[in-house]
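2024-03-11 09:14:02 DEBUG pipeline.ingest accepted 1 chain
2024-03-11 09:14:02 DEBUG pipeline.ingest length=440
2024-03-11 09:14:03 DEBUG pipeline.predict start
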Amino acid sequence: MLPSLEEAIAAIKAGNKEKGRKLLADILQADLENETAWLWMSSVANSDEERRRYLKRVLEINPDNASAQRGLAMLKQKQAQAKPAAPPPSGGLSSRLGTEPPASPAPVPPPKAEEAPPPSPPASDEPTDLSLKDELLPPPAFRSAAKEPAQPTTPPPKSTADDLISELRGSPPPVVEEEPVEEEPPDEKPSKKADPKGNGVINFLNSERGVFTLIAATVAIVLALAACVVLNLVFQPLAQQLSPTVAAVLGTDTPTATFTPSVTSSPTSTETPTATPTLTPSPLSTRVVFDTPTVTPTLTRTPTPDRTRQNGQVIGVTSGDTITVLLDGQEVAVKYLGIDAPAVNDPNLGTEPLGEEALAANRILVEGKQVRLEIDVTNTDESGRLLRYVFVDDQMVNEILLRQGAARLILTPPDIKYGAQLEAAEQDARARGIGIWGLQ
């Protein structure tokens, strides 16, 4: 079940930027055209460059979004004050992965110094619920329409994600100083005089410690009696079952009714007692053998561990198809099976087109999350990286990246366990012309 946009905004307002960022990433994973989610993602970005990409994505979806225009204008002004203007980076994540990039909107001129900022609406007009039209679209960081001209001596304050969240939560309540409370001196109780009569036992039993000791002793006695009753109920049937066996072993169950007639009838009576003891213990001995093997089945059953699937936590994202996972306490590199994403900072290839966008898409899907790694046939590649299918909440990340156009399908036998599923995902991205298929 996907989280709602209201949950993500509530987490950001509560100061939990990391939780809000993860919730927004889950929402964007399902819907890359969510204008409001991209706008709020820009408020929790880790850098100005990342914030600029998110705002450009908002303008690609809706070129008339005033909040995104003001945010980009503020970032340009901030960059101009810090250093000479640099050309903006090529398209954002979703412009290459999702839809065709529309015509870039006209730059918004910086606000004039003489214009006064618009008055803030009264407190009664502010919505109390988390609506998508009034409170979600324009984050407070981008509502200020006018800024003072930059002074040559002191640069203007930087707008950070923490400032945005502090504005959303409002001013903190005033601190109320509490008056110190004077501690009352403890009541001095008069010391009890020693009992001249020597009734120490009675005084001890009348005290709190004596009552507690008496209660503890009573409870111990009751528990001991209960244990005796339970042991009696448990071992009495067992003793009844073992009594014939013990009697047979000790030889106390030997007398029979045929012994007396055999002595009086013939001199061969001496042979009769020899047969009787041998027949009587024989069924008892078989019963002993029947009772003893009952404990053996529980000792032979040992579960076989499943080596084809392992769980770990993603601690790093290297490229669009490579991650670092903490697996059984060790950091291992994992290469996605069946796909090949554009390279990023490769010693031989450098950074290929859409390499940064594929890296960002992979981060949104798996960064900091628990993943399940599933092996096919080949364990590692020539570089020693594990070759795995990666799952997050039972969704295959390999398939999602192919469907977003962030990677190409590479099937190498015998690792074709999910070949048909991955091929269908690539055909869908190719038909829509998104991601790397939009460059052709």
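2024-03-11 09:14:41 DEBUG pipeline.report The chain has 17 helices and eight strands.
2024-03-11 09:14:41 DEBUG pipeline.predict end
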